[in-house]
Design a protein that fits this description.
Radius of gyration: 33 Å
Strand content: 25-35%
GO molecular function: DNA binding
Number of strands: 31
Shape: globular
GO cellular component, one term: nucleus
Main location: nucleus
Subunit structure: Component of the FACT complex, a stable heterodimer of SPT16 and SSRP1.
Distance between the termini: 90 Å
Family: Belongs to the SSRP1 family.
Number of helices: 11
Structural class: alpha+beta
């Protein structure tokens, strides 16, 4: 090929992890892109200072050093690739690759070669191992002959690798001739001073700027966010994450429509790990109107030398803007903001749900981003096709007020965004069509008619909200004449699945099922039906206030249903992750989650309810046998 070469299944050494990618060398330089999306490395040929080949177990490694001292290792080339790549690099970049040999003798004595910011341990003329000095967090002398190196504990490295290098010690005898010293400064001290010039020691002491009490939705909690020169730290009450800036792929600044909060998302590759859960996106929620003023703890010399035209000495403005500008200046990551899409309320996103989680779907210029949970980024180049579906397709209740959007990826993975309001269709369709994405159920006229129109045809102007219908059905299965003294619904929680009271004004009690029963009953009767006055009204038609039955305070507490136990367990978590969500919306969300749970997932709550039911039956039997009947007290017994 004259324009370049492509090589698949090439690993990026170091922090690249274990995921392969595609390596490309062309007349303008080098590039590596991880399979399935994520990190992309691009190297201009003008920045390349040296190239090396090395035979490693089962493959060949290509090493590339650039002007700012960074060293990249690409692993996985075949023997026949070496000659073709060498000729291409010589011809198009003017650099002749050198060949290095790997030492496999296992010897732990040799020499040290420091080239730029890379330290290489040599056994004879062969390389045993190498480490990047910017990854050194601390270095110190131990006695007069030993030099200790401590490395950054980066939470992203643990995402792909079981083991991480924590510390390394070199023994430098006083007879060493490579690092010549004197009586006051032995050879080990000379090595220590050399390493200190390149090690990232100072940034581990004082942060450049700190933001306290920041609400982070994933991983959830309130953290103090410290921005250092080469990494950021999230310090919470239970968790502490340290993230190298080299792991940051991109920043997203996404305002919430008609909401006093703004999302700032830090996308990582590799992700951080908490237990067995990986977090490729850190979702931060800032209060939009908060104004802050911050001074950066950087010397004028360092500002002029390293951060010129990237940072200012102080910042004042909205907190999310200040945070993003400082982090962008320190890390060099690009920032993505909302593009041309606008919703029918002139917002940047549309409300939808993904995997029973309500959130916002942001149509961006190069992808879709669903927030806050689970944070899901879909690049346009990864999409095979999209399909508009009528809400409830597949057996659920149908409603023309909503539709679903199915996104099929090229790797056969699917994402179904549900419960999108119908009035968002035209803006969303025009945006997707304008990006030349394939729409499966698009008609031949190219204007979104035919099948797409059928998906959104207004078949019933009085269609009900499917969320409310599910909640009403849930409440209908748990009807009871008794009040639940332990569960008190909020003022606006009349539609909650756990509210099964007999209040006549409740939305849950005013269901179409009652009307349907009465109409069937009237139709089945052949005799004339005597007209009766409405229930709860006097003869003149005025409403009569229903006397509320008093409850014996000594009566046993009612048994709770499995759904009530589930609501008690999840309501707090949902409230903390969605602080601005109304109580009625939380109730809808809980109802949806319960309906989609499998019988195995419901089993713990069913067992709790069974235990509570036995308790209630036992206490009720005692209550009925011991409670005296007092006709003058006004209390009623069973």
């Amino acid at each position: 090929m004259t324009d370049g070469h492509h090589f698949n299944n090439i690993l990026l050494g170091g922090r690249g992890g274990t995921n392969p990618g595609q390596f490309k060398v062309h007349s303008g330089g080098l590039a590596w892109k991880r399979q399935g999306g994520g990190k992309t490395i691009e190297i201009d040929k003008a920045d390349v200072t040296s190239v090396t080949w090395m035979k490693v177990p089962r493959a060949y490694q290509l090493g590339v050093r650039i002007k700012d001292g960074l060293f990249y290792r690409f692993i996985g080339f075949r023997e026949q690739d070496v000659s073709s790549l060498t000729n291409f690099i010589q011809k198009n970049m003017g650099v002749t690759p050198d060949e290095k040999q790997l030492s496999v003798s296992g010897h732990n004595w040799g020499g040290i070669d420091i080239d730029g910011n890379m330290l290489t341990f040599m056994v004879g003329s062969k390389q045993a191992f190498e480490v990047s000095l910017p990854d050194v967090a601390q270095t110190q002398m131990q006695g007069k002959t030993d030099v200790l190196l401590e490395f950054h504990v980066d939470d992203t490295t643990g995402a792909n690798e079981k083991d991480s290098l924590m510390d390394l010690s070199f023994h430098v005898p006083t007879s060493n001739t490579q690092f010549v010293g004197d009586e006051n400064r032995p050879p080990a001290h000379i090595l220590w001073e050399t390493i200190l010039k390149f090690a990232d020691v100072g940034s581990s002491e004082e942060p450049v700027v700190t933001f306290d009490g920041i609400a982070i939705l994933t991983p959830r909690g309130r953290y103090s966010v410290e921005l250092h020169q080469s990494f950021l730290r999230l310090q919470g009450q239970a968790n502490d994450f340290k993230i190298q800036y080299s792991s940051i792929v991109r920043l997203f600044l996404l305002p919430k429509s008609n909401n006093p909060h703004t999302y700032v998302v830090i996308t990582l590759d590799p992700p951080i790990r908490k237990g067995q859960t990986l977090y490729p996106h850190i979702v931060i929620q800032f209060e939009t109107e908060v104004v802050v003023e911050r001074d950066l703890a950087l010397s004028k010399e360092l500002m002029a030398e390293k951060y010129k035209d990237r940072l200012e000495e102080s910042y004042k403005g909205l907190i999310h803007e200040v945070f993003t500008k400082v982090l962008r200046g320190l890390s060099g990551a690009k920032v993505t903001r909302p593009g041309s899409f606008r919703s029918c309320q002139d917002g940047y996103a549309v409300k939808s749900s993904l995997k029973a989680e309500d959130g916002l779907l942001y149509p961006l210029e190069k992808g879709f981003f669903f927030l806050p949970k689970p944070p899901t980024l879909i690049l346009h180049e990864e999409i095979e096709y999209v399909e508009f579906e009528r809400h409830g397709a597949g057996g659920a209740s149908m409603s023309s007020h909503y539709f679903d959007l199915l996104v099929k990826l090229k790797n056969d993975q699917e994402h179904l965004f549900r419960n999108i309001q119908r009035n968002e269709y035209h803006n969303l369709f025009n945006f997707i069509n304008g990006k030349n994405m394939k729409i499966m159920n698009l008609g031949g006229d190219g204007q979104g008619t035919s099948v797409v129109t059928d998906v959104l045809r207004d078949t019933d102007d009085d269609a009900v909200d499917p969320h409310l219908e599910r909640i009403k059905n849930q409440a209908g299965d748990e009807e009871s004449d008794e009040e639940d003294e332990d569960f008190v619904a909020d003022k606006d929680d009349s539609g909650s699945p756990t509210d099964d009271s007999g209040d006549e004004d409740s939305d849950a009690s005013d269901s179409g099922g009652e009307k349907e029963k009465s109409s069937k009953k009237e139709a089945s009767s052949s005799k004339p039906v005597q007209k009766r006055k409405p229930k709860g009204r006097d003869e003149d038609g005025t409403e009569k206030k229903k006397a509320k039955k008093k409850k014996d305070p000594n009566a046993p507490k009612r048994a709770m249903t499995p759904f009530m136990y589930f609501s008690m367990a999840e309501r707090g978590n949902m409230k903390s992750s969605n602080p601005d969500l109304p109580t009625t919306e939380i109730a809808k969300k809980l109802g949806e989650m319960w309906q989609k749970m499998s019988s195995e997932e419901k089993q713990p709550y069913i067992q709790q309810a069974q235990v509570d039911k036995k308790r209630y039956e036992k206490e009720s039997a005692v209550y009925r046998g011991e409670a005296p009947v007092d006709v003058d007290s006004g209390n009623e017994s069973d």
